[in-house]
């Protein structure tokens, strides 16, 4: 990491401000080689985190832009090494010219996530915090952003640390007694192993229990819309999306495949899937669409059954209701409230039935209240919710290793045998924070990042 990297840290579209970031030993003198300050500031005298005005110069010494420059010296910087930032006007042409000038003086283009990767490698953050950076950038709800911010502050690492520490103490005690049998060391007891491992397993179970909510928090609620043809499924999707996302006609079977759209309903992010109307049909393509609709319900977090309240219930309705009940959670939309109703809410076998007119939008606001009931819990979004699939997998492997350890104790296995499982648990937990770092894991994590972060 002895070279100097540079990249645009803001978007590539036109904006009021664009930031060009540098990091690496010698980046502050390099920044001053393309910068003419207003005043007597130099690379040596400029204080950390102070903005100064000056002119950004091109390779031939011509003015590119009037900019602000700020520096942070390592180790008290984002990356842990010397950094500098130019705050330019947000023209893509200006930012490209700024990079060209920096490259001409010896900097190189930063790769995806390379600034944050250097922060990790320099000990400024652990791996769970580094992953929280991209989660914060990609957050689509206030709750997801709050939880990612908590993880960036080290909340998940603080939950893992006591578990890892207790297992480390256990291993240290065993090896101390083994390596120094003549010293006055307290006897290593299997009852101590059982107590420590049982407590650690219980803590990991508590952490893992938050992942189902964490996945919804980060990715949104996977919701599938089901119903017979012309019940108003596509109209409901259009009403929630706020535009004509799906073609709506009076012809049955208009939708033959799944159609996906992401919408916000209050504080909730819905990954909506509109599906083909469920019915018996001789059309091979439509039959495939019906099969996909039923499969989508089994893979969803929420099934939304849409019923045409102005028409009597049919076998197609009952089949759609059965498909909806395959999802972990299901609600009914009693649609077409703008017409005379022949179906009552009590006719539908759902705990939540929402009378709606997808045509006028009346009643749709009630969906937010139902989602609050189904998908909110008391867990604060402070970083304690496990949202990352990689971290959840590592936590699950650690728990499985500890459970094998407890089973080995029940089977009267020797201490060295059961402690192999404890070592495997520690190795899995170390993958969460980066204490046990595998290069392919690090590469996969930072490949998700945008250039400049």
Characterise this structure:
The chain has a 7-stranded mixed sheet with strand order 3-4-5-6-2-1-7, with helices on one face. The protein has a 6-stranded mixed sheet with strand order 9-10-8-11-12-13, sandwiched between helices. Helix 7 packs antiparallel against helix 13 (389-410). 44% of the residues lie in helices and 17% in strands. It is an alpha/beta fold. The model is unreliable at 246-257 (pLDDT under 50).
What brief labels describe this structure?
453 residues; alpha/beta; Gyrase A, domain 2; Four Helix Bundle (Hemerythrin (Met), subunit A); seven-stranded mixed sheet; six-stranded mixed sheet; 15 helices
Quick overview of this protein structure:
This protein is of the alpha/beta class. Helix content is 44%, strand content 17%. It is built from 15 helices and 13 strands.
Give the arrangement of secondary structure elements.
Blueprint: E1 5-8, E2 15-23, H1 27-33, E3 35-37, E4 52-57, E5 63-72, E6 83-90, H2 92-104, E7 108-109, H3 114-121, H4 127-138, H5 142-152, H6 155-179, H7 190-208, H8 211-219, E8 221-226, H9 233-241, E9 259-265, E10 268-274, H10 284-299, E11 302-308, H11 315-324, E12 329-335, E13 353-355, H12 366-375, H13 389-410, H14 415-433, H15 439-446
Helix pairs in contact: 4-5, 6-7, 6-14, 7-13, 13-14
Overall 3D shape: flat
Mean pLDDT: 87
Strands in their spatial order, largest beta sheet = 3-4-5-6-2-1-7
Distance between the termini: 16 Å
Any low-confidence stretches, pLDDT <50, length ≥5?
246-257
Sheet having the most strands: 7 strands, mixed
Number of domains: 3
Number of helices: 15
**Strand content bin:** 15-25%
User: Quick one: CATH class of the largest domain?
Assistant: Alpha Beta
Quickly give the CATH architecture of the largest domain: 3-Layer(aba) Sandwich
Give the SSE order as H and E letters.
EEHEEEEHEHHHHHHEHEEHEHEEHHHH
Number of beta-strand segments: 13
């Amino acid at each position: 990491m002895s070279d100097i990297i540079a990249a645009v840290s803001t978007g590539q579209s036109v904006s009021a401000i664009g930031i060009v970031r540098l990091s690496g030993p010698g980046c502050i003198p390099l920044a001053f080689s393309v910068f003419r300050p207003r005043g007597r500031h130099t690379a040596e005298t400029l204080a950390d985190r102070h903005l100064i005005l000056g002119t950004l110069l091109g390779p031939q010494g011509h003015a590119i832009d009037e900019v602000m420059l700020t520096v942070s010296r390592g180790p008290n910087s984002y990356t842990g090494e010397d950094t500098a930032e130019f705050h330019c006007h947000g023209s893509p042409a200006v930012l490209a010219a700024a990079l060209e000038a920096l490259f001409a003086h010896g900097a190189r283009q930063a790769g995806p996530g390379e600034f944050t990767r250097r922060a990790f490698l320099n000990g400024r953050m652990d791996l769970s915090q580094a992953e929280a950076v991209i989660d914060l950038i990609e957050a689509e709800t206030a709750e997801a952003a709050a939880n990612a911010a908590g993880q960036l502050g080290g909340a998940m690492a603080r939950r893992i640390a006591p578990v890892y520490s207790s297992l480390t103490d256990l291993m240290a005690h065993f090896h101390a007694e083994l390596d120094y049998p003549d010293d006055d060391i307290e006897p290593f007891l299997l009852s101590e192993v059982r107590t420590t491992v049982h407590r650690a397993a219980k803590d990991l179970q508590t952490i893992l229990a938050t992942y189902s909510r964490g996945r919804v928090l980060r990715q949104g609620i996977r919701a599938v819309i089901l119903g017979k043809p012309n019940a108003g499924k596509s109209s409901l999707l259009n009403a929630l999306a706020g535009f004509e996302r799906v073609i709506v006609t009076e012809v049955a079977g208009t939708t033959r495949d799944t159609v996906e759209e992401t919408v916000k309903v209050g504080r909730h992010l819905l990954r909506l899937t509109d599906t083909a109307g469920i019915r018996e049909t001789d059309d091979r393509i439509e039959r495939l669409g019906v099969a996909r609709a039923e499969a989508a319900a089994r893979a969803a977090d929420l099934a939304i059954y849409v019923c045409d309240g102005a028409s009597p219930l049919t076998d197609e309705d009952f089949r759609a209701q059965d498909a909806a009940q395959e999802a972990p959670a299901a609600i009914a939309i009693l649609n077409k409230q703008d017409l005379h109703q022949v179906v009552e809410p009590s006719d539908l076998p759902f705990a939540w039935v929402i009378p709606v007119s997808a045509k006028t939008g009346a009643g749709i606001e009630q969906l937010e209240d139902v989602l609050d009931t189904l998908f909110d819990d008391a867990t604060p979004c402070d970083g304690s919710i496990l949202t990352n699939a990689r971290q959840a997998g590592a936590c699950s492997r650690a728990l499985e290793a500890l459970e094998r350890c407890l089973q080995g104790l029940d089977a009267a296995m020797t201490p060295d045998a059961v402690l192999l499982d404890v070592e495997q648990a520690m190795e899995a937990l170390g993958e969460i924070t980066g204490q046990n770092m595998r290069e392919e894991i690090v590469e996969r994590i930072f490949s998700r990042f945008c250039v400049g972060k």
